[in-house]
Amino acid sequence: MRQKNLLPSGKNRQPGFTLFELLVYVAILSSVVTGVILMVGEMFKIQAKVRSAFVLQDNLDFAQHRIEYAVQGAADLTLPATGTGAVLRVAQTTSSGDTVDFALADGYVTMSVRGEAPVQLTSPEIRITAMTFERLQGQAPNVRYVLAGCLRSAEPYLQLSDQVTGLAKIIR
């Protein structure tokens, strides 16, 4: 007795995919989709880290420029009187002799004009960890300053820190 072939062949085969072919396609497709999702997630992390680095650097640069601008137009530096200090007091060249104070308060660089309430120069996204001023002797008193800060973030991949150092000169 002759056995009949149970698998369709040739002209008798119906169009479509076998179950095995479908399983292979689904496995390949799910691997590709998983890879794309992981790449997009990493891309968002990198984008957040780059943005955070810009925010930190922009805040430090803004505080640095405010300090340099105040010192360049100053008549004198009254604090620190000598050596190093945490507060910079700049006596303006106006006839009223207004003063501008720069200080570190609660992780922010603050600026106070004429003894009024201090204004924050840095955003809540960053925390200033150190700010020092060193008075340099010379014809016109100059100041060397250091600002160090970090990002206020709970995400471990966003734990960034940076530091700027500069020299501000009185221009007479």
Strand proportion: 25-35%
The string of secondary-structure elements, in order, is: HEEEEEEEEE
Q: Outline, from the CA principal axes?
A: rod-shaped
| Radius of gyration computed on alpha carbons | 32 Å
Show unreliable segments.
none
State the share of residues found in helices, binned by percent.
25-40%
Structural class: alpha+beta
| Average predicted confidence as pLDDT | 85
Count of DSSP H/I helices: 1
Count of discrete domains? 1
The count of strands amounts to: 9
How far do the termini sit from each other?
116 Å
Give, in spatial order, the strands making up the sheet with the most strands: 1-3-4-5-6
Biggest β-sheet description: 5 strands, antiparallel
Summarize the structure.
With 172 residues, this protein is an alpha+beta fold. The protein has one helix spanning 19-72; strands at 74-79, 84-85, 88-92, 99-105, 108-113, 119-120, 126-136, 142-151, 161-169. The longest helix is centred in the N-terminal third of the chain and has 54 residues, at 19-72.
